[in-house]
Amino acid sequence: MKPVVVSHRNHVSDTARSLEKYYALHAHIYDATRWAFLFGRSAILERARVAQPAPRRILEIGCGTGRNLIQLARLFPHAHLTGVDLSAAMLNVARRKTACYGPRISLQAQSYHAPLGRTGSHDLVLCSYALSMFNPGFEAAIVAARADLTCNGHFAFVDFHGSRWPWFTRWMRINHVRMDGHLLPLLRENFTPVIDHIRPAYGGVWDYGLFVGRKKD
Ligand SMILES: C[S@@+](CC[C@H](N)C(=O)[O-])C[C@H]1O[C@@H](n2cnc3c(N)ncnc32)[C@H](O)[C@@H]1O
Fold first, then answer.
1. CA distance 153 to 216
2. 103, part of any domain
3. 74 partner at 20 to 30 Å CA-CA among 66, 81, 100, 198?
4. Is 5 left (phi over 0), alpha (psi -120 to 50) or beta?
5. 210 — phi, psi (to 5°)?
6. Which residues does ligand 1 sit against, CB inside 6 Å?
7. Distance CA 131, CA 137 (A)
8. Domain of 31?
9. Using one digit for the tens of pLDDT, what is the confidence trace for 144-160?
């Protein structure tokens, strides 16, 4: 009998396919519902502004419906913004919402697992409630984000961190989210922390992490 070989690449594309299906349904209700549990999104943008007050180019990995891109465009009126996302349905919503910004905001439909450019050209890379869904692929995305940053660039991150309630962790897993505290240690290895906090949500039902780090040499 031939051995069954399951490659990492197949795994990544299986995950991408099921995320695409998931967001084809959720894109329509995303903005109306996520404010109630994706905490820290505005706070991390403000923190990123302190670390990187005048970025020229900004990348958001897993930009979804474009909520953060619009806030970033307002915070940094001279910056060019790129949003990358694998979900066509989420990007369709983002495209409608960001149309008034013209070419200042560009959107790319792809799975992010390799740098966008050969040389780091982004002063700020944001990953907001996306990296916890890169399973597998979070290590490759972090390495790629580092490569996409300029030498003094900053990586800003907000995402689910953990929960003491196994039922909640299982429920989130069904919703494609891994939350076992695996991301922050890896971010600390790859970036020099400027902001590094863990905050409780709903009195401790879960925790979320806020991180801003400078690219390490
Ligand atoms: C929870 S949403 C977050 C959207 C937005 N960043 C926010 O804060 O509202 C996660 C997004 O990450 C995208 N995503 C997940 N894995 C991805 C991957 N490997 N490459 C690109 N986008 C991905 C999903 O399609 C989804 O739009």
1. 9
2. yes
3. 198
4. beta
5. -120, 125
6. 19, 23, 34, 38, 41, 62-64, 67-68, 84-87, 90, 111-112, 128-130, 133-134, 137
7. 9
8. 8-215
9. 999 999 999 999 999 99
C-alpha distances (whole Å) from 147 to each of 4, 41, 196 are: 34, 24, 21
- Per-residue pLDDT of 44-58, as tens digits, reads 999 999 999 999 999
Q: What is the band of 217 on the pLDDT scale with cuts at 50, 70, 90?
A: confident
Q: Report CA(127)–ligand 1 centroid distance (Å).
A: 8
Q: Is the pLDDT of residue 5 over 90?
A: no
d(Cα 128, Cα 62) in Å, to the nearest integer?
Answer: 7
The answer to whether residue 3 is domain-embedded is no
CA–centroid distance, 107 to ligand 1, in Å, is 13
Q: Is residue 2 domain-resident?
A: no
Residue 3 has pLDDT above 80, yes or no: no
Question: What average pLDDT does this structure show over 111-135?
Answer: 96
Q: What is the CATH number of the domain that holds 77?
A: 3.40.50.150
Name which of 19, 172, 162, 2 is nearest 87 in CA terms. 19
Q: Let me know if residue 101 belongs to a domain.
A: yes
| Overall pTM surpassing 0.85 (yes/no) | yes
**Per the structure, how many domains does the chain have?**
1
In a 13 Å sphere around the CA of 208, the CA atoms on its Cβ side amount to 21
